[in-house]
Amino acid sequence: MSMFVALLHSIVLSPDRRVIMEDLRALARELGYREPRTLVATGNLVFEADQIRPHELEVALEEGFEEKFGKHVDIIVRSDCTWMALCGTNPFRDGSGDQVIVRVMRLPIDPEKVEALKPLMAEGQRLAVVGGDLWIDFAGKPSQSKLLSALTTKRLGVGTMRNWNTVCGLAQMIM
Description:
The chain has about 180 residues and is α+β, with helices and mostly antiparallel strands. It contains 6 helices and 10 strands. Helix 3 packs across helix 6. The radius of gyration is 16 Å and the shape is globular. The two termini are about 15 Å apart.
């Protein structure tokens, strides 16, 4: 048995309806996963499952989600070991926990796509690719940055963003 972290790209089903975390935990139980737990109400799920490849879990969770909620949502799954490794790679530990973001990618991000983001950066902002994931220190509120609106699936590939505080919270859940 292993522990996994699943990150939903979105929990918005319609403008007036979001997935409730209890419903997400129920979906995980229906799929046969054990001890599902969530962190904050933004689609962070930790659970136990038999030894299985993360990609197979992504497929099962995405299909189950679409069947249960009627909408496709990209879901990124990492094993407990790879999540802890991700935690150890934060290149911006000196940044603020709510301003340092990692875009956890399904496939390693293309370096050319990262280069294309650089003209959108404001003074003090930093980018780094570590282990195929994109780390960003917004050096201020991410919502006030031109860079944030460019971090889309269409532009960068399948992935989802979490701030450093959430990354650490998920690590505590699997320790």
